[in-house]
Each structure stands twice: as C-alpha cells, then as structure tokens.
Amino acid sequence: MPRRTVTGRVDDLFTDAAAAGVTVTLSAMPRRWTDEAGDRVLTAPDHPVTVVDGSWSASLLPTDEPGIEPTTGRYYRLTESVNGVPVRRRTFEVPTGDLSPVDITDLVVADPALPGYVRGATGATGPAGPAGATGATGATGPAGATGPAGDTGATGATGPTGATGATGPQGAMGASGTVVTVAQARITDGAVADLTSSTPWIIATTSVGTPLQCSIAAAAGDRIRVHLSMMYVGGHFLDLALLTGAGAISEYGASGTGTPLAEGAPEFYPSVSFSKAASAGMFTVGSGHISGGMATVALVHSGTSSGKVYANSVYPFRMLLENLGPVGGSAAGSWLPRPSEQGLITWTGDPNDAGHVTAQSSAGVAGRITLVKIPIREQVTISNIWLGLSGIDAGASLSNCYLGLYDAAGNRVGVTADISSSLMTGATAKALPLVTPVVAAPGQYFIAMLLGAASTWTTNSLTFKATGAGISVNANLSAPNLRYSTIGTAQTSLPASLTLASQGTSTINTGWGSQWYALS
C-alpha cells in the first residue's frame, strides 16, 4: 500500500539548541490496523523514530487509505521525550494527498498539550489587518531592437522589482474550541445466554452480572457522544440510557426523556426485515448524573422472549464515550498555562497562583491526614507527587511523614516512603517518588499528606505552597466529595483505605489554604 513520508524537528522543545537525550515514538491509534480480509497487520504500536541533528522522518500509511480496518477513526500519536520523560504529545492524521513528504506542523489536529484530545472547532477568523503600502514600480527596461518586417523583436530586459510594502498587523485570533476526552469499555466475560426476562426497562448484563456500560469523567453541561459495537439476536427491545449518580436509568437515547419509546431505539429493532441506519448517540450530563466525577451510559433492554447480547472473548461488547464538553467550549481556559508545558501530568492549579499555607501548631495538625482532590482525565502512569515547600523549621522533629494517592472509593493506590528528611531541606517545589508507580484510570483522586503524630515544629515555620482560595474550594460540596479536608487523628502511617464520608474541615477552617500538588 502507498505510504507518505512525514518529517519533523524537536528543536522547538528548547529555547536554544536541541538537547541530547530526545527520543521520538510513533503509535498507531487504534493500536492495530489490518486489511479488510483481516489476515495482515499493517501497523505496529510504539515505533521508535531516529532523531538526527534535531530532525526525524517516518514513512506512514495514510489514515484515509481505503481497504483498511477500522474504516474510520484512524490516526497517529507522536510522543517526544527527553531522557525518557514524555514532554509533548501530538495526535494527527496523514491524508493521501499527492503522497509528497509533509511536515508534522501541517498535520497536527489535536492539542499538543493534552495528549489524546482531538482539537475542537476552529474559532472565527479575526479581521484581516490593513494591507501594506504598495511598493514602487520598478523602472521599465529598454525596448528591444526592432526586427525585420514581419518578425517580432526580442523582449527587453525586465526592470528591477520594487520594494515590498510593510505587512499589516495580524487580526485577532478566534476563540479556541473545547478539548475532547474519551473512555472505552470492552466486556468479554459473558457466556452466550439469554438476557434477563423483564417488561420494565433494565440495564443489560452479562451472564455473570457485569453491566454493559461505560463511564467517563464529566461535569454538568458536558455533552457525551456514544459509539456502540456489538452483536445481538432475539426479540428484546434495546436502547442506550444515561444513568443517575446512583446507577438508575435517567434518560433514554431514542426518546431523549425519562420515558422510553415502546420499542426502543429504531436502529436496534429486533427484526431483520427492515433496513436500519445508526449513528452515534448523544446525552447532556446534569448534576444528578454524576458520581465521583463520572457519568455513565448503559445498554438497556425490555423483553420476555428469547434475546441475547454477545459479550464474550469471541464476540466482545465495546462502548466508546467521548466527552465533547459544554456547548461553546471554554475559550479562556485554552490559553492558561498547562501542566504538560512543565513536564507534569496534572496539578491542582497553576503554581504561579499559589501563595503559602502555615502548618500551624503541631498539637493541632500532627497525626491528621489532609486530603486535596485532583481529577485525572485519562489513564496515566504516575511516578511522583509534587508539593511546594515554602518554609523550613530547622528545629523541627519530624517522623512518619508521607504523601499518598487515594481513589474516589477511599482506597490507597500509591504512597511515598517517609519524606520527613525532605521537609527539612530545600524550600522549593519537590518531586517525591511513589514506592511503586501507579497506573491510574480516569476519575477523581485524593492526594493525602500526613505529618506523623509524634512530629513537632514551630508554628508559622513549616509552611507549604497553597491556593489563595483556602477553604472556599469546598463551596457547594460536602463529604465525601470535599476538595480540601482532613481525616483521622494520631496517625503514624497512611492507612490502606479511608472512609471519605468522615471528611472534616474544623482544623483547616482556622486558617489553612488548600495545598498545591502536581503529578508526574
């Protein structure tokens, strides 16, 4: 099959010259492409690309080449790393065109600062700047000698080109579009068995009780697009549904309301006597649809006759969700500093906006766990928790001090070794490694800090960088969803699990501000 050469440079990662240790990796998305017969793999994931003097090139199969499965949704992801640390990711398509070489800067269609996200709609073009003044016309060259009658004489030499006029100012840039996030469920644990007989509409499950559904990080007002891939047979009526935060059916896709159509979504009609056309489903998330920062869409059904939805290793059930964000997107947020621009995965806020927080008296704080909520929008591997140490107490006695990461259910998924010695030196931003890196799925997480119960320090000396909002970060929130809270007393280690319903604010209400953290 024809291929097209894509080129690029890594010099624009640095302010001076290209640095050593830069590596470039190309990945096909999805990670496997085959011909239509399905018997030949056409791409391989995570292909390293050689960088020579800051330049690289790769011969790639066009993403719109016919005769390839999947037929749509193919693209490439470029990851640029410095000394093994990813610092920039770009997602792009390669059109067939004339198969001439093309630079990566002419292909990128996703936001480089947020890997895996597809660029939203382009904003309106700003007004054109005024045209520069027209350059002076060059002098006309001398006329050529007149030839013999009937023949045209030679053309005289062209006069010099006039100077180019000044370029007019650039028009205003249009608003940025919304970033898209994705989540996918692939369910294969079910035997081939009939769906549960039920006249009321219920969530479809496999033979071992796994619900056929998928969740994605979302906020009220976000639009969720649903793509479904499955095989089904029998007489049950089927539809897609947006669930409440408690897991009940809230809105049916075909009707757009809380009341289903009598025979479900037309594209899932059980009879094969009709031609059917399907497209992606769409839901708008409300506050009542969110649990732990996630919204869930499920396959639902109604029927008492025989009917099956296949969800096993031979015929997997797959659901892909795309969060398109709210209507109109967020123009302002797209221009703010981003964690990836500093080699970080995510943070609780721009560190440029962080003030400082006093650790207060050791009598009121030592042994308490403070929790700061942080969202993770796509699956990532976390190796370090960053904090901002703004003040050191040279006379402090610190022991059993830890940072940890907990999921939305209160389960500890990562923890550092004792960081007591790290809090006695270097008042700056610190990367404190987890004992074991964490592969974190999308969702809401809590960063926990413990200054051990036996620790002592001087009030107003041991301080940490924090947001200026302080306790205001908990506006309109209650346990177990507080963004900033404390839990427990007399602790000497971070427990394996926390009861997040026990989150409290009495200690931090006396003057703390929500600590600044980042992940890498």
UniProtKB/TrEMBL annotation:
It comes from the Bacteria. Pfam families: Collagen (PF01391). InterPro entries: Collagen (IPR008160). Residues 124-174 are annotated as: Disordered. This is Collagen triple helix repeat protein. It comes from Streptomyces sp. R33. The lineage of its organism: Bacteria, Bacillati, Actinomycetota, Actinomycetes, Kitasatosporales.
